[in-house]
Amino acid sequence: MTNRKHLLAGIILLTILTTACEQSKQATSTVRPPTKEEVTKTIPQNTQPELAQVTEGTRQTYQWYCTQCHGIKGKGDGINAKFLTVPPRNHTKAQYLETRTDEQLFQAIKFGGLSVGRAPCMPAWGETLDDDIIQSLVQYIRELCQCEAL
Ligand code: HEC
Asked: Ligand 1 pocket, 134 CB below 6 A?
């Protein structure tokens, strides 16, 4: 009799646990990076890509893909920063970013750190992000540093 009780309790517990897991799976599957449409939807048509604007989607893209290393505010203090041999660039530091052109920043993001003579621990995003999104990330970094190429 006690065995059957245990078995029954076991089955109930298992059911509760698996449904709980299913629910949390469903909940997290709706969390995703912004789509290209979400990044570009507020950019007016006919805008030259080099004049890309920063949208809410740009900020979300940065939060999704870049903050682990570069930090939530772009200060280079992300949660992964201390595990990297070369510290992630501080995107709020005008002193360095003024020495880089928009093209160089674009290239660093698209093809990775190595492509511009920087560390390979800055990954390449060209397979993940479209050019106009990368362009808007460059503009966002210009916002963070409140600077432009000298
Ligand atoms: C795995 C960690 C990591 C992630 C994620 C990451 N970066 Fe970086 N990033 C770095 C590191 C490290 C450097 C510094 C490279 C150096 O100074 O040699 C860097 C440098 C840069 C630079 C400056 C390049 C230069 O000229 O020095 C830019 C711009 C940049 N990252 C943009 C981004 C953007 C935008 C994203 C998100 C799409 C991103 N990074 C995601 C690690 C990362």
From this structure: no
pLDDT number for residue 10: 66
pLDDT tier, 2 (very low <50, low <70, confident <90, very high otherwise) = low
Q: Residue type for 49, please? A: P
CA 2 – ligand 1 centroid, Å:
61
Ligand 1 pocket member 81 (CB < 6 A):
no
112: phi > 0 → left, psi -120 to 50 → alpha, else beta; which? left
46: left (phi over 0), alpha (psi -120 to 50) or beta: left
Nearest CA to ligand 1 atom 23: 89
Best residue among 70, 99, 134, 140 to mutate for probing ligand 1's pocket (most ligand atoms within 8 Å of CB) is 70
Distance of alpha carbon 62 from alpha carbon 56, whole angstroms: 10
Please give the structure tokens belonging to residue 81. 């920063």
pLDDT of 34-92, one tens digit each? 888 888 766 555 555 556 799 999 999 999 999 999 999 999 999 999 999 999 999 99
Rounded Cα gap, residues 126 and 111, in angstroms: 6
